[in-house]
Amino acid sequence: MRLQYGHELLDELRDIAVSAAREAAELAHAGRREGVSVAGTKSSASDVVTEMDRRSEALLVDRILSARPDDGLLGEEGADHVGETGIRWVLDPIDGTVNYLYGNPSWAVSVAAEIDGVTVVGVVAAPALCETYVAVQGRGAWLHDEHGTHRLRVNDPVDLPAALVATGFGYTVERRLAQARVVQQVVPRVRDIRRGGACSIDLCFLAAGRLDGYYERGPHAWDLAAGGLIAQEAGARIEGLHGAPAGEELIIAAGPHLFGALHDLLAAADAASDRA
Question: What is the per-residue pLDDT for 2?
């Protein structure tokens, strides 16, 4: 059963996403105060998963399927449910797990809703920062914090030499060496480089004007979905190289004025390659 969607459905999806993300974020935040240990590893010894990643995802799945049992799900820690409505929820129960493990506040719970493959709702809840970012397709992006609710807008125009650009690194030695090579070519051309450790937060910081650009090779759908919509609704252009969709090969995100110059710099640096 495919759904036609309008404001009422988008409102419903947004409200479910906000409620579930905030509840999972508070669960993880409380668990962090009680102490965290590594429950396992994935692609490498540095790619860790905590028991709270799994508990957070289980809570998200329960809350979403309780509200909308016929929808699909994709989660970082294994949730994979084929739905019947054309709606799929894309979940990152803790984005920035290493930050979470060490008590660095740059981690978040990320929840996105897609309709027929198009992201229409994105929520990134960062409880250690006391911030929740929310976007609905066509309605803009918003930050909810201790001081109220704020409309988000990317910095634009910004020229490349004045740009503060964030990036991230993968978990294998080969990819990290390749990404270090790219950074070596990027850093002389921009104001500075930042490495925050959570893709969703980097995209939200871009939306909030705390960064001017962001690029990374390797993020998955659950890393990009919610933060990507938030950045887009704040005015960012988000693509891969040469007009390809943003994805695991490469994501480039920046305001419209900066995007072309950052893209060309990354293309010349062969940023979509694992060549060291």
Answer: 45
Q: What is the pLDDT of residues 116-152, one digit of tens each?
A: 999 999 999 999 999 999 999 999 999 999 999 999 9
pLDDT digits (tens, 9 = 90+) for 21-34: 999 999 999 988 77
Tens digits of per-residue pLDDT, 34-69?
777 676 766 665 556 788 999 999 999 999 999 999
Contacts of 266 (CB under 8 A, 6+ apart): 182, 186, 215, 241, 250, 252, 272
Return residue ranges of the chain for CATH 3.30.540.10: 7-151
Helical H runs in 68-163? Answer: 97-102
Residues of the chain with CATH 3.40.190.80: 160-268
Third-level CATH fold of 7-151? Fructose-1,6-Bisphosphatase; Chain A, domain 1 (3.30.540)
> Rounded to the nearest 10 degrees, how much is the dihedral formed by the CA atoms of 14, 199, 29, 171?
140
pLDDT of 241 > 90? The answer is yes
SS3 call for 116: coil
Helix, strand, coil percentages in the chain from 3-state DSSP, rounded to 5: 40, 25, 35
The CATH architecture assigned to 160-268 reads 3-Layer(aba) Sandwich (3.40)
Residue 30's H or E segment, with its range, is: helix 7-34
Distances (CA, A) of 77 to 67, 92, 195, 271: 21, 8, 24, 27
